[in-house]
Amino acid sequence: MAQDPASDEPEEPSGSGAPPNPFHPTSAEVGTDEDGMVPGSTEVSRTLETHTKRTRLRRGCTVSILTLGFLVLCAELFLRLTDDRERALEAGTNRTNLRWLEVMQAGIFEELPDPVRRYAMRPGASCEVDGWTFRVTRHRTRGADFPAEKLADERRILALGDSFCFGMWCDEDETVVGHLARMANAREAQLDSGLHWRAVNLGVPGYHSGQQLRSLEQDGLALEPDLVVLYYNTNDIAREGYFYDEDLGAIRSDYLPLPTWLRRPLWNSHLYGLIARKHYQSLRAVPNAPFDPNVPWAHVREDNKQATRAAITAIARICRERDVPLFFVNQPFISWSGDARQEDWSMLPLNAWAEDLRLELELPGVNLLGWWRGYADGVDRFPAPPDYLPDLLLADPAVERMVAQAREFARGDDANWETLPLNLRMGYVDRALTEAALPPEVDFHFTGEGYGRIARLCYARLQSEGLLP
Question: Looking at residue 60, what DSSP letter applies?
């Protein structure tokens, strides 16, 4: 049969003798449409392309995760091998916190599982720093151990608070609650009542009001107090407390926006610890951080105030339910007393806020603002001239050396330091400062004499309220 010359296609061989070419399937085998296209070929191509992209994506993610994990592991090993935490702790140690670090590393604190309280005094612990003895009872209180069961003729004053209540840089009987118990016992002896008052000091350095509430609930109530003294300090306005690192023997800060239950295990990672530390340092670098609402621990933040209000209100409610009097000591933020004598001192509204809360809760108490402004009787007569200089009661070594030098100058002039009027004392102080200027930062805790003066102001009010003899 002749081939059509108009056709480009070769004529297919006839008959069954010619086998089909496997490399050129027929249209019936392929299933082409009328245009010669394979139905669904576009969908198949797209499916294959999508599968390929997903495979590449999975492979890329896997490689990225493994690479990131490897880098994190390397960073973690590097920080551990180079003792990053120990070096950071050493770098942050200065003359004002060196003694405090010695106390922490002496093992008198322990970590607690409570997400609010977080740490407490370690029962039975004891240490001596710079001549002061810090002992912890089986009840997590500071002082000599005593039985939990109260004797018939025994009365107990339980104190809640932070490091001022605890009594940094004074002996255990020189704390505010120690002074109060001693004065009460002296009065009971005069009355020949046969009663004895015991100081129960539940103050813990670094505690805010929420942690103080927890310590009352978990430890204080079991000791059957007859009087509770809440030694409140302006920087107790907080809702986030410190953590305690058992390995370092140090209290630490972590303000990353994560829940407590997650931050605790994450701290086991030194890399996380580095991130938390850098975050905290960046917050501290904020100018006037305690008054910047963007800083988590700022005292002016409403959430911190609300948490503090709730905690103090709960303490007052617990005491009322048990018919135990609660006495409120309102101490302003302690810096140089000259700051407190400024009409626009930034801490004044916070002191007023706490005083309003005390009055709202109808609690007896004292406001130490007048005392810190230089009025020995505690009555705030500002802007009248002060009658004494409270800065001389600071327990900072540099301040104490300056005061000792001023006393020596007075003794050299045959003058009695104790009876000198303030203006003459200031003359000797200025003279001492010309020989050795004070460092820019000092430790603003009090000496035993300073706590004693506060205790005398408190005792007078407690006595007038019929709460102490």
Answer: H
Round to whole Å and give the CA distance between 197 and 188.
9
Say if residues 364 and 461 touch (Cβ distance below 8 Å).
Answer: yes
Q: φ and ψ at 47, to 5 degrees? A: -60, -45
E strands, 293-420, are 326-331, 365-367
Q: How far apart are CA 182 and CA 159, in angstroms?
A: 14
- pTM (predicted TM-score): 0.87
- What is the predicted pLDDT for the residue at 27? 47
Token pair 């010359």: residue: 5
Q: Which fold has domain 92-396+442-464?
A: Rossmann fold (3.40.50)
Question: Nearest to residue 322, comparing CAs of 230, 231, 232, 216?
Answer: 216
β-bridge mates for residue 142, sequence order: 136, 201
CA atoms within a 13 Å half-sphere pointing along the CA-CB vector of 418 = 0
Beta strands in 101-195 (DSSP E): 109-111, 119-121, 126-129, 132-135, 154-161
The two tokens of residue 81 are 């091998």
pLDDT at 5: 45
* Number of C-beta neighbours around residue 17 at 10 A: 6
End-to-end CA distance of the chain: 138
Give the angle subtended at the CA of 152 by the CAs of 465 and 125, to the nearest 5°: 90
Neighbour-count burial for 221-231, b at 16+ CB within 10 Å, e otherwise: bebbbbbbbbb
205 upstream amide cis, omega within 30 of 0? no
> At a CB cut-off of 8 Å and minimum separation 6, what does 325 contact?
227, 228, 319, 364, 465, 467
- Give the Cα separation of 361 and 327 in Å (integer): 11
What is residue 49's predicted lDDT score, i.e. its pLDDT? 74
How many C-beta neighbours within 10 Å does residue 111 have? 15
Low-confidence stretches of the chain (pLDDT < 50) are: 1-16, 18, 22-24, 27-30
Q: Which residues contact 79 (CB under 8 A, 6 or more apart)?
A: 85, 270, 271, 273, 274
Q: State how far the Cα of 359 lies from the Cα of 348, in Å rounded to an integer.
A: 17
Q: Identify the bridge partners of residue 227 per DSSP, sorted by sequence position.
A: 157
pLDDT per residue as tens digits for the range 191-245: 999 999 999 999 999 999 999 999 999 999 999 999 999 999 999 999 999 999 9
CA 189 to chain centroid, in Å, comes to 41
